[in-house]
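stuck on whats below:

***
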Amino acid sequence: MPAELVLPEGFVPEDPPDPPAVPRDAATVMLVRDTDRGVEVFLQRRVTGMAFAGGMTVFPGGGVDQRDVDAAVAWHGPDPDWWGHRFGCAPALARALVCAAVRETFEESGVLLAGPGPGSVVADARPYHDARAALVARELSLADFLADAGLVLRADLLRPWANWVTPAEEPRRYDTRFFLAALPEGQHADGATTEADRVHWQRPADALADWQRGDCALMPPTWVTLSDLADHDTVASAMAADRTLDKIIPKVVRDGGVVRVVLPEER
């Protein structure tokens, strides 16, 4: 990673927790679409002052909710055993991660990776506005929402991409599985979330150029993911990528008054 990729002042405490915090399981989704200029990815700038990653430009995502474990979710696509093998975890956790990926994507962007049947996906998610609000408020579980709406979770629309764990030096830690998904035809990603003050579609290379100019702040996993996505000219190419999913656990180092994250192979 570039030397300029440093963490904001105060992002990591001077005295790291001892013992380190236990990482919370989480899922994040890179929504991508094809354009005349190449692949674009959906990005959000998190509200400044949030407990984790405030002010950072990120992908939609969040922690696994206990109700994401519900085995009653109507499901189409690779089964939890397959996802567990890819992410190196138990099938029950793998199911919860996929459910969290679909739920968080819907909550934070309004994009719903589900359909009335195994071979279909909703063309317009706006009729489910009330359910989206209830999911955000934790008044409704994903399983109950899909059952009430007669929808099937489309696990086949997701691809496993990476697995990053927050460094042990940070007080809030996440074991985050990164997923890739193409924006379903007819659906629109929006900014109707209290967690972001700006959303936009952008080519990965342009997002990296914005970061280089100081126009946005990126965490190391986001920077690396954007760099990887920039290698693909089409959504189909990215979706077909054969990804290695080793757990990446960076380390925080202090260097001349700045704090940066170092990957294992860079130590």
Remarks:
- The helical segments are 80-87, 91-109, 129-136, 142-149, 204-213, 220-229, 235-239.
- Residues 91-109 form the longest helix (19 residues).
